[in-house]
Batch of 2 targets.
Target 1
Amino acid sequence: MNWQTRITLNPEILVGKPIIKGTRLSVEFIIDLLSQGWSTNEILRNYPGISTEDIQACLSYASESLKSEKVYAITV
């Protein structure tokens, strides 16, 4: 899934959080709904302006973000 075609960052919208293009729905919000047990169908029913591909793009964005995250051990 090429999330770049569906996810955008705009400092004018939601303080620059990644959102689904053409909406004010953040990737974080969609991931939160999924983590609370919402199904894709429930999300689509409640937010008819988005598609299954948009939800997949949110998951792809989150996955890629986590893969690029660096964690460093702090020694005392």
Note: The mean pLDDT is 94.
Target 2
Amino acid sequence: MAANPWNPYRESLVQESETIWPEELKLVNPIDRPRMETQLHADPAKAEKLEYIRLYTGFCRRITVTATDVARLTGT
């Protein structure tokens, strides 16, 4: 389950987005990462680990990629 579940109010105020790739996913092809990041941020409600960080102007959406996310996006 997401660390901080998807929130439509916060989502409407997102000003920045950030993607964290943990060390255990270092073997994911670097060429595929931008595509995966785009897919994750296009549908953040499906991300396994989602956080909203409060900014002065709104929120930053931070998604930490998990093995489950990679499997879902690659169809494996």
Note: The chain has one domain: 8-74.
